[in-house]
Fold:
Amino acid sequence: MAVRTPLATAYPFAAVLLFLWVVADTLMLSLIARSAGKPAWSAALGVLAGASLTVWLGSPPAMRDVLLETPVLLMTMAAVVLGHVACAAARARQAMVMRGGDRKKRPFSATKPSTIRMSAPAFSQRLNRL
Structure:
């Protein structure tokens, strides 16, 4: 709501920076509250990538235009997202080429068992519809 106020439309660059800061701070504080001790750097990178995508997709058109006109900010956000994707791809590749274990279980070894249990019913329902 605040990104659509007259003040935000009058100063879109400041609104983009404030929106990015609020989203990143909120997500990072929730990560810190959920983790026992210091969170892993890959989790922090994922939070920052999620904040970048949230700001990109959740911004009104005037603020999105400011993002396109500010290449340093746009490239930084893109680098964070691509860094997160690269780290996730490296972890997935490492899980796929691991030695030993059942070959069918390798793709699922990089995820938590609770995530698999949660997504398995929805995935099986989609397969049954095909």
In short: The chain has a mean pLDDT of 82. The chain has six helices and no strands. Residues 95 and 109 are 6 Å apart (CA to CA). The two ends are 41 Å apart (CA to CA).
